[in-house]
Design a protein that fits this description.
The chain is α/β, with parallel strands linked by helices. The chain is built from 11 helices and 13 strands. It has one domain (about 1-330): TIM Barrel (Alpha-Beta Barrel), CATH 3.20.20.70. The chain has helices at about 1-10, 15-30, 65-70, 115-120, 145-155, 180-200, 220-230, 265-280, 295-305, 315-320, 320-340, and strands at about 40-45, 45-50, 50-55, 75-80, 95, 100-105, 130-135, 160-165, 205-210, 235-240, 260, 285-290, 310.
Length: about 350
């Protein structure tokens, strides 16, 4: 109810300004929200209070951890963060398409850099699983990308439960080339080796997940599933934003450059999830993200094979009530499945 009153005011602002204002107000929303019932899930060697998380991009700089935790999320994926600070693309770089319940962003991995990010994160006491999305700097050539990812992993290691390798943002030139099979295998092996060194040093494990694009063809998705199995990835996040525009091209801002998220992405991201699930047969946990604007959408991702789900654009259009709605839908689905198996 509170968000329904605030949304017209927020939508009167520039989208990026509204984004920051909404994050600052999320603490008040969390204070007024009712407690979410538990719905525990085990995945990637971790215990999640519930399967509903924040997708990367909402809290890029790790500045709003307390407020987001208080909204009831079972996990937060913060970032993306790069080793060195970078401003990203010039504004405007975030566009609403309310007719389609969608957003287009071309932030370009704007980042405060890993040093400031870790300083921000260390101020908070975590009450849920914390993940961080990591990427390479724009001016780092792909052949040196592993060094950027390794630098982020090392700095984050004592503070997080998992990291996701961002090889799928459409807003950093050449980044999606890291999804090519040979390149991806080489990158993941280097990061896994770095993780093994850090595991020995710190005496704890940090899970490694891969975030992939929705625009891969079915054969490429199956190849990534095969790599994930062979290289012992801890999880796959499906999916990032899309460069497709078929469902929004007729709307104002529908042809802006950048990655499209929200309702038009739901069907495609779920298709990717289903293929991964068919190939992996629960061997590797999957995180479903893309187009979740209702509890039914969250349950659909679980039905397609996800162990966990993430939301971002849905929060813009629905507000904090979406969190509890998704958790309730996941609990009901779990209860129904449990009853059916008896």
């Amino acid at each position: 109810m509170l968000y329904a009153l605030a949304r017209p005011l927020l939508f009167a602002l520039d989208p990026e300004t509204a984004h920051h204002v909404a994050l600052k107000l999320s603490g008040l929303a969390a204070y007024l929200s009712s407690a979410t019932p538990p719905c525990p899930v085990k995945a990637m060697g971790l215990e999640f209070p519930n399967p509903v998380g924040v997708a990367a991009g909402l809290d890029k700089q790790a500045e709003h951890v307390d407020a987001l935790q208080a909204l009831g999320f079972g996990f937060l994926e913060l970032g993306g963060v790069t080793p060195r600070p970078q401003p990203g693309n010039p504004r405007p770089r975030l566009f609403r398409i309310p007719e389609a319940k969608a957003l287009i962003n071309r932030f370009g991995l704007n980042s405060v850099g890993i040093e400031t990010f870790v300083s921000n994160l260390s101020r908070f006491r975590k009450s849920c699983v914390i993940g961080v999305n990591i990427g390479k700097n724009k001016d780092t050539p792909n052949e040196n990308a592993a060094e950027d990812y390794a630098q982020c992993l090392e700095a984050l290691y004592p503070h997080v439960d998992y990291v996701s390798l961002n090889v799928s943002s459409p807003n950093t030139p050449g980044l999606r080339d890291l999804q090519q099979i040979d390149v991806l295998v080489d990158l993941f092996r280097k990061i896994r080796n770095k993780r093994e060194q850090l595991r020995d040093k710190h005496g704890r494990n940090v899970a490694l997940a891969l975030k992939i694009a929705p625009d891969l063809d079915d054969a490429a998705i199956r190849s990534i599933a095969d790599i994930a199995r062979r290289e012992r990835m801890d999880g796959i996040i499906a999916t990032n934003t899309t460069v497709a525009r078929a469902d929004v091209e007729r709307y104002p801002n529908g042809m802006q450059a950048g990655g499209l998220s929200g309702a038009p992405l739901r069907e495609r991201s779920t298709h990717v999830l289903r293929i991964l699930s068919q190939e992996l047969k629960k061997e590797i946990p999957l995180i479903g993200v893309g187009g979740i604007l209702s509890g039914a959408d969250a349950a659909e991702k679980l039905d397609a094979g996800a162990s966990l789900v993430q939301i971002y654009t849905g929060l813009i259009y629905r507000g904090p009530e979406l969190v509890s709605e998704c958790i309730s839908a996941c609990r009901e689905r779990s209860r129904t499945a449990s009853s059916a198996s008896r």
